[in-house]
Amino acid sequence: MFTGLIIELGEVAAVEKGADSARLSIKCKEVIKDADIGDSIAVNGVCLTITKLSIPNSELSFDISFETLRSTNLGALKRGDKVNLEPSLKPHSKLGGHFVTGHIEDIGKIKNKTAVGNAVKIEIEAPGSVLKFLIEKGSVAVDGISLTVTDVLKDSFSVVIIPHTAGMTTIGFKTIGDTVNLEPDILGKYVAKFLQSAVGSQQSAEKKDSDLLAALKKSGFIS
Predict the structure, then answer these.
(1) Which of 12, 106, 206, 220 is least surrounded, with the fewest CB atoms within 10 Å of its CB?
(2) Are the C-beta atoms of 82 and 166 separated by less than 8 Å?
(3) Do residue 112 and residue 158 come from a single domain?
(4) Sign (positive/negative) of CA torsion 117, 122, 144, 73?
């Protein structure tokens, strides 16, 4: 579990691609200080497990499955690229941002960037699988960054980036056309699931009542 508050920008040291998997090595200074093999780290919002640790080289390595390569933008990374890094929550961690699982729902694309005072408004094109869980003033993780949704449009949504966030994360230098990993607020997904279940139960109960009435009428008990 993560919060969407990025600790530092790491740098891709190497990407070794196989037929259906890859190994990603990332240089970093802060996250590695308290890291160990088996720990979970969010890389551009994707929950990955450390499989190799090189303290002398300040490098963390991760094995990436075919499914992760397919459903996120990690497969497009190359040596020298910057990535957002956040270690998983610990009992003593500060609970800022919002709860982020590191399980990406889909990939979005930056559609527009507009300066608003000292901030930047970014419109992100997103699929329906993500948009259906977004609400204005709600939370969304964009490349692992906890952000507040300002507008929900037909095929996109927008967020506003303050200078601190722009300077500390990849969203500050990404341009129109660049892809981003998207994870809607997990609470919204649970609420949607609950409502679907409630509606389904109600419809099932109504059908049973209807079938009972039809049987009673057919048997002549009611007219």
Answers:
(1) 220
(2) no
(3) yes
(4) negative
Domain count, the chain: 3
pLDDT in tens, 5-39: 999 999 999 999 888 899 999 999 999 999 999 99
In a domain, 133, yes or no: yes
Q: Is 193 left (phi over 0), alpha (psi -120 to 50) or beta?
A: alpha
Residue 95 is assigned to a structural domain of this protein:
no
Distance CA 104, CA 206 (A): 37
- Classify residue 88 as exposed, middle or buried by CB count within 10 Å of its CB (0-12, 13-18, 19+): middle
Dist. CA 134–CA 173, nearest whole Å: 24
Asked if residue 1 is part of any domain, the answer here is no
Name the pTM for this structure. 0.84
